[in-house]
Sequence to fold (206 residues):
Amino acid sequence: MASYSCYKDVEQGEVGVSSNVVRWGGLAGVVAAVMWALSAILILLATPQRVSFNSFSDYLLQIILLVAYVGTLIAILGLHALQSESGRYGRLGAAGSLITFIGYATVFVVVTVSILEGGASLLTVRLAGASAVLIGSILLGAMIIRARILPWWCGVLLIIAFPLGDLSNAVLEGSEGILLGILWGVVGYALLSRSGTVAEQPSHVN
Fold:
C-alpha cells in the first residue's frame, strides 16, 4: 500500500508539472503573439534599420523580438508537454518540437549578439536557425494534426505561417510578424484551454 501511495504521489506530481508547463506555455504564446504584432507595427511605422542600429526604435524592435522569441520557446515547451504522452505524437512530434525549439533559440542568440554589437550579426547562423524553424515547424505541425489533441488548424498554422511570412515580407515588410502573432496567439489560446484537462486526466496504474 505504501509503494502504491508513493507511486500515486509521483504520478500526480508529474501531471501537476505537465499542467503547469502547458499553462505557462499558453500564457507565453499569448505574450509572444502580442510582441510579434508589436514588431510588425514598429516596422510598418518606424521602418527601423536592420543592418546598423542607430536609433531608439532600432533597439526597441530587437528587444521586442527577444521577448517574442522567449515567449515562443516557452510555448513550444507547452506544446510538447501537452502531447508527449500521445502515441500519435511520438518521436516524430518530439523531434519536431526539438528542431523548432533549437531554431528559435538560435535566432534568439543571434538577436542578442546583434543588440550587443549594435548591428546585424551572424547572418549565416541566423539563416541556419531559420531553416531549423522551417523544418521543425512543418514536422511539429504535421504531428499536431496527427495527434488530434489540439485543433487541426493549430498544426496547419505551424506548417504555413513561417514560410508564408517570409514570402509576405517581400510584399509588405513587417507582415511576417502579423502571421507569427496569429500563429502563437492561436497556439497560446489552445494551450490555455487544454491546461485544465491535463490536471484532470485520470492516473493509470499497471
Summary: The mean pLDDT is 84.
